[in-house]
Amino acid sequence: MLSCFGMGMGKPAILLAAVVMLGTAVSLAAAIAGTATFYTPPYVPSSCYGYADNGVMIAAASDVIWNNRAACGRRYRVTCTGPTNQGVPQPCTGASVVVKIVDYCPPGCQGTIDLSQEAFRTIANPDAGKIRIDYTQV
Question: What region holds the Expansin-like EG45 domain (predicted)?
Answer without folding.
Answer: 34-138
